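Dear colleague,

Following up on yesterday's call, I've attached the two folding results inline so they're easy to grep. Please treat them as preliminary; we haven't cross-checked anything against experimental data yet. The first protein's sequence and structure tokens come first.
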Amino acid sequence: MENLFINTVGDYTVRKCGKDDLSEVISINFTTLPEHYSDYFFEDLLRSAPESFLVAEKDGHVVGYIMCRVEYGFSNFKRFSLTRKGHVVSLAITEGNRRKGLGDALVRNTIEALKLKGCTEVYLEVRVSNHEAVRLYQRIGFEIITTMEGYYRDNEEAHLMALNIAAAQ
């Protein structure tokens, strides 16, 4: 069996997501975020980018996750340049397990996994009103590239944030 362990944060284990974790991941998505995805979407991301689909676990239960995909497209930092980049599709942690360093650990471990996949950048979209998440990403080194009006279904704006992995090394 593949070793899924990555590291620990206090009483929590950060590790790769396994197929058996998906039901808990999907439940966390539905209870903590306004954006929901089909079961197939989660399965597809796990299948296509397992190295960057991580969970935080405590006492045998998943309490948080981050899922990403690897894309090839225009750079957020070099004009008219194409690059391999990671896209953080979703990050969520259950209410009682927030502010314990899990978001930071999940993002940083994912960045390391994306580096190994040849990514030079990581980007994400985050609600403008999610100040806590914006601060987390900025502490890690993400920059606000632009703000997109009406990005979400409820018409809220989103920040497009990105990290130049190559420059951060």
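Below is the second protein, in the same order (sequence, then structure):
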Amino acid sequence: MATANAAGAADAFLATLDDSQRKAAVHAFDDEAQRARWSNLPVSMVRRAGLRMGDLKPAQREAALRVLAAVLSKAGYEKVNAIVEADEALREGSGRGSPAFGRDEFFVSFVGKPSATAPWMLQYGGHHLAINATLHGTNGVLTPTLIATQPAAYVRNGKTIRPMGAENDLAFALVNSLTPAQRSQAILGPVFRDLVLGPGRDGKTIVPEGVQGTSLDARQRRLLMELIAQWAGIINEASAAPRLREIESRLADTWFAWSGPTAPGSAAYFRIQGPTLVIEYAPQNLGGIPANHIHSMYRDPTNDYGRKPTGR
């Protein structure tokens, strides 16, 4: 049902476009170059393919966002919107202007024709965001997906928005729940200032490090799963539920690693790695504020771009 709803929303969006826009929006499913054409950098530095949101008419833009809402969970859609609005806050406050930042500078495209049965992929991204969602029948795969934010917090309508606040808070709760023996395993010697498996690193692997799931108690395992769900739960619930069950079934073989201070609010890198999972979180000090510029990556080394269900 989720894929059918998403395909229906995609068809409705495509119906609002003219022929040249449709040609720009839809790529062949075997277009591997387009599949891997995503980045963390501003669009002024790495141009995205597809349709620029700022070039769409209001009705077209709303239709594009309905596709995104159908593919993602409610919480996932809200997170993505908060990231986009953080970029708008950056545009408003930086003085650098709209060519690099802002809600207009995000792009939407499809790899494969949207279908309820045949495989296709939604790409939506720009600065600090790359949603790569592959749908095939009842299967939905969100890896690889990059979520990031700058600033880490901003104010809209009198309310403070933290696009990645839950990720930050849960991670510090987990690391500070560790015993001294667990900490000695979890905390790494090297300092990581950015993602190891970020854009352009498809197919690369790293050796698991840190404290293993077998060493965690029940409360710590719950915290770890809550933390993982901040990424795995971005996709619609029908796709997220089996994915989370798969991850939890292999939690004993999942590792949690930390690099940096453990005081809440500090700029500290962490990584979660299991047989079918790699999550990285890499914050940076910006403007004298620790962790005001955050990058994160969500991958499945066995199934990035939905290679399993699509048979590719």
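For the second protein, one point worth flagging: The first strand starts at residue 26 and ends at 27.

Best wishes,
A.L.
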